[in-house]
Amino acid sequence: MFNLFLAVFPEIFLINATFILLIHGVVFSTSKKDDYPPLVSNVGWLGLLSVLITMLLLAAGAPLLTIAHFFWNNFFRRDNLTYFCQILLLLSTAGTISMCFDFFEQERFDAFEFIVLILLSTCSMLFMISAYDLIAMYLAIELQSLCFYVIAASKRESEFSTEAGLKYLILGAFPSGILLFGCSMIYGSTGATHFDQLAKILTGYEITGARSSGIFMGILSIAVGFLFKITAVPFHMRAPDIYEGSPTPVTAFLSIAPKISLSANMSRVSIYGSYGATLQQIFFFCSIASMILGALAAMAQTKVKRLLAYSSIGHVGYICIGFSCGTIEGIQSLLIGIFIYALMTIDAFAIVLALRQTRVKYIADLGALAKTNPILAITFSITMLSYAGIPPLAGFCSKFYLFFAALGCGAYFLASVGVVTSVIGCYYYIRLVKRMFFDRPRTLILYEPMDRDKSLLLAITSSFITLFFLYPSPLFSVTHQMALSSYL
Amino acid sequence: MKDFPIKYLTLNMIIFLLGIWGILLNRRNILIMLMSIELMLLAVNLNFLVFSVSLDDMMGQLFALLVLTVAAAESAIGLAILVITFR
User: Fold this and answer.
1) Using CA atoms, how far apart are residues A245 and A340, in angstroms rounded to an integer?
2) Residues in chain B within 8 Å Cβ distance of A156
3) Quick check: B44 and A138 CB within 8 A?
4) pLDDT in tens, A395-429
5) A188 to B47: CB separation less than 8 angstroms, yes or no
6) CA-based angle A20:A22:A24, to the nearest 5?
7) Quick one: which H or E segment has residue A6?
8) Which residue of A127, A128, A148, A184 to mutate against B (max B Cβ within 10 Å)?
9) Quick one: closest CA in A to B21, which residue?
10) Residue A232 needs a FRET pair 20 to 30 A away by CA distance; which of A36, A81, A283, A414 works?
């Protein structure tokens, strides 16, 4: 019985750490004796430490995966897919928290609850990745979304931020309702909520003829709800406004962490739970639309954060290619795409945070960055070229493998649309690089050097991006193992 | 007795669609949008209860109870964000 708790020890530790940090923050920040100190850096460093310890507990607990399998069969399942996805999630969260400290100092952002909410949403994302039942999936998605609504509106003085929080609430609660409707339809038509039972019931239901409209509506609604939350295209409505209006660390979180956990969960539902042509057609259509919109709409943008929002919508389109082919290579390419996307996005947002000194919002402000700060310009260029998919950077490897998987399962149209939009998208990425290196703005903006944490983070991620092509096989074999375990 | 759930499912579907239309048509009035979100979640709750009774299964009622809690938390957060927006 003790194995039950040992296997879920990382989550238990993280939840306890969250509550202890909350109590610590409340007690000490309201104490008159210490003159009401703002505890955000304190709680931030302790939060970062607890995320790293959780990752160590998770990594060291690998032998326990098989022992507690029996007990947790009801709501969660831990296997290779969840193991590596959770490690990736915790690494990204640690990276994004370490980017925030400078932001807290400069903006005089005093609320330590920001870090507590981030830790709480990380817990829920750990649960979401290992969720194996519709109930667990919905509760984890809701907990993560609720935490994000609050932190998106956390800068109370700026009405930009509170409006972004309100829009995010509406845009996030609506798909939760649709997702829940889908869950209820599937539950009503099949009587089962656990993915094992659903897999057995839904295996050949399209081929054998008796198509229950309840199941069809249920699967459709679940897919639509997921696509809303991952901001894929017909459902991306306010996403660029939200990304632009929220404080920049929150935008960084929004772009990275939910995409990782939702992709892992969605791959469980769509490949294991309900394998069939319905979901494949929806993902097909959404990925084409996302790629096209991501390439075209970003050309007209003049603000940096909106550009990054549209480029992340485009990248979600590429990642949905991995869902559209129902093969193992599809899932493997999806996981490689998510991994490289997470690293590139951490890189991009670290740079945007570093350039925050004089409120750089517009792309034109980046002019002549190469003269004032050449190494930062080179790093930014590497990140943008990796987004564009220029070989030999890491972004090219992920796109190449995604198109390869699409061709391997016969989705020729998808791969060709992907290649064409990739080429079109190169335009605005290279325009950024040109503006940094060759433009001559009217006033030269001088940026202060960035702090140690961000420079470390930038060094690690950009060196990974440049040197990935030399030795890509560890990532490939790891993701192959992950993809295999989602088929078992 | 064979079409026992259909009447109730139709009612719940109508309430759910009213909730969706309420969000899509009421962009000006945030309070009505929040109420429509509540309507959606509660319509799905009723759906779960109807299915639980007709399937004679307990998981529907369990799910409905958990969803009720989440809907309450969500509307609390929505109202809090509304308050700071209009301050």
Assistant:
1) 26
2) 84
3) no
4) 999 999 999 999 988 888 989 999 999 999 888 88
5) yes
6) 65
7) helix A2-7
8) A184
9) A174
10) A81
Q: Is A398 a member of any domain?
A: yes
| Mean pLDDT to the nearest integer, B33-37 | 94
Is residue A210 a part of any domain in this protein? no
Rounded percentage of chain A residues whose pLDDT exceeds 70: 90
**Do B81 and A153 make contact, defined as CB atoms within 8 angstroms?**
yes
CA–CA distance, A121 with A135 (Å, rounded to integer): 17
Minimal CA separation from B58 to chain A, in Å? 10
Is the four-CA dihedral A425, A431, A434, A435 of positive or negative sign? negative
Test B37 with A139 for CB contact under 8 angstroms.
Answer: no
Vertex A375: Cα angle to A371 and A381 (nearest 5): 90
The full length of chain B comes to 87
How far apart are alpha carbons A174 and B24 in whole angstroms?
A: 10
Nearest to A93 by CA among A175, A9, A18, A157: A18
Range of the domain at A391: 290-487
Q: What is the pLDDT of residues A242-251, one digit of tens each?
A: 888 888 889 9
Phi first, then psi, for residue A56 (nearest 5°) are: -65, -40
Considering the entire predicted model, what is its pTM? 0.91
B70, B75, B83, B86: which to substitute to probe chain A, counting the most A Cβ within 10 Å? B70
Q: Do B16 and A181 touch (CB under 8 A)?
A: yes
Task: Give the residue from chain B lying closest to A190, CA to CA.
Answer: B55
Cα-based angle B21, B22, B28 (whole degrees, multiple of 5): 120
Measured in angstroms, the CA of B1 and the nearest CA of chain A are apart by 16
Q: Tokens 């708790």 map to which residue?
A: A5
CA distance A452 to A50: 20
In degrees and rounded to multiples of 5, residue A367 shows phi and psi of -60, 140
Backbone angles phi, psi at A36, to 5 degrees: 50, 65
Domains, chain B, ordered by start: 3-86 (1.10.287.3510)
Spatial CA neighbour of A311 closest among A291, A338, A283: A291
Rounded to whole angstroms, how far apart are CA atoms A383 and A375? 12
Among A135, A162, A169, select the one facing B78 at the smallest CB separation: A169
Q: Which of A262, A396, A410, A260 is nearest to A327 (CA)?
A: A410
Question: Residues B26, B46: contact at Cβ < 8 Å?
Answer: no
ipTM: 0.95
Q: How many domains does chain A have?
A: 1
Residue A246 within any structural domain of the chain: no
Rounded to whole angstroms, the Cα distance separating A274 from B22 reads 31
Cβ contacts below 8 Å, chain A against chain B, sum to 94
Asked if residue A308 belongs to a domain, the reply is yes
- Per-position b or e across A172-195, b if 16+ CB within 10 A of its CB: bbbbbbbbbbbbbbbbbbbbbbbb
Q: Left (φ > 0), alpha (ψ -120 to 50) or beta: where does B56 sit?
A: left
> Rounded to the nearest 5°, which phi and psi values hold at A194?
-80, 140
Residues of B in contact with A146 (CB under 8 A): 70, 73-74, 77
